[in-house]
Amino acid sequence: MTSDTTATTPTDLAALTSELTSEVAAATDLVALEAVRVAALGKKGRVSALMGRLGSLPADEKKSFGAAVNALKAAVTAALDARKAELETAALDARLATERADVTLPVRLGPVAEGRVHPVSQVLDEVIEIFADMGFAVAEGPDIETDAMNFDMLNIPAEHPARQDHDTFYFSPGADGSRLLLRTHTSPVQIRTMSTQKPPIRIIAPGRVYRCDSDQTHTPMFHQIEGLVIDETTHMGHLKWVLEEFCKAFFEVDAVKMRFRASHFPFTEPSMEVDIGAEAIGKPGQWLEILGCGMVHPNVLRNCGLDPEKYQGFAFGMGLDRLTMLKYGIPDLRAFFSGDLKWLRHYGFGVLDVPTLGGGLSS
Ligand code: PHE
User: Of all atoms in ligand 1, which is nearest to the CA of residue 228?
Assistant: First the structure.
């Protein structure tokens, strides 16, 4: 082996150059290469040691020796740089090969897969999506209402028989004798909206409602969606169109048979109940009642400060739980509110399956 501390001749330097460059070539990773660099070019490295000898040389040798060592240094540096680039590329290739991600794999849901959206929440999202697309805004009102909002303003005076139908939950009377109650329908949101907004009005109002009633198809708390449209020329044709479009979109079919039966609500005139042909949900030959509706009664408009000579419109109220049972074939309403995890896993919806008209409501 050439001894660098005594090497002075061009032959010695050439031998050292080839020794160092082959060490560089032999380095198999970046750590080994760095060790080679330090041993050659580091402060205490072999090339630096040669440079250190420069001062002790006779003047006539200094120049050529210095130049030769610099050439050696440049050659080793170039070899180091080239090898470093090679090793870095190889390291990157190795990483890319092991860390490859298949972006076509389905999302791993983890804990999200455990959660379920309740069928009523899913249907609420679906209904809002459909009406939002028709230009309806979502309005809300409180669950605890006054007698006035729930009844009087809706043209249901104290002695009206409709009050008995509603099986109302009342709170204890206050000092002035007035009683708060749990709203028996979402219709008070009509009043709240018409008393505070100027027409044109186009809202839906989803929410919880309460009636003292319980069997397979009735629970003391259930959900309704109210609809209200008020403008100067709004008529029953608009009502029919909106409800038909809603039913087609909601049941995800091209046509739905609908039957409008004359009915009576104190706050609408005329009033109707709407049935759909149950073939929409795979039960041909049957009719299913899904909602009540009608043209807003002039007294109701007047109660809210709207001139019935100028404004008119329609309202409807649907049972959300009933729509859910129909669309998703769920037999017992009481199970909706039992908090049974097994039931929810069976009937619930994936957290990431947000219903949209573009992407599909229920798929
Ligand atoms: N509020 C009525 C009910 O609960 C439904 C309804 C709403 C009817 C709006 C007509 C207009 O039965």
Answer: 9
Q: Which residues are 117's β-sheet partners?
A: 349
**Residues 156 and 46 grouped into a single domain:** no
* Residue 133's CATH number: 3.30.930.10
Domain assignment present for residue 36? The answer is yes
In the chain, % of residues over pLDDT 90 = 56
Domain that holds residue 24: 4-98
Residue 7 is predicted with a pLDDT of 53
Domain total of the chain: 2
Cβ-defined contacts of 109-117 (< 8 Å, 24+): 109/352, 112/351, 112/352, 113/350, 115/351, 116/344, 116/345, 116/348, 116/349, 116/350, 116/351, 117/348, 117/349, 117/350, 117/351, 117/353
Q: Is the CB of 294 under 6 A from ligand 1?
A: yes
User: How many A from CA of 316 to the centre of ligand 1?
Assistant: 6
